[in-house]
Amino acid sequence: MENRLGVVGIVIENREHIAARVNAILSDYGHCIVGRMGIPYRERGVAVIALIVDGTTDTIGALTGKLGSLPGVKVRAALTGKEK
């Protein structure tokens, strides 16, 4: 299976309670994360993370699936249509 390049957007509610679990998952998938930007948006009570990823659709799907299964975490991915 070929790698795809893409972006993953993550919105986290109740950051104080779930941040350690989110970071553990991101660490497990560090091999396919090219870049990461995280912003705590305190006025809205959420944190927003943007990831640049380069991996197979299976790997990126597993990453987003694990993150999305956490309570208060919303995840969306956009991947290139062309395989590398």
From TrEMBL:
* Signal peptide span: none
Q: Which domain of life is it from?
A: Bacteria
Q: Which InterPro entries does UniProt cross-reference here?
A: Acetolactate_synth/TF_NikR_C, ACT-like_dom_sf, FeFe-hyd_TM1266
The protein here is known as Transcription factor NikR nickel binding C-terminal domain-containing protein
Q: Which organism is it from?
A: Moorella mulderi DSM 14980
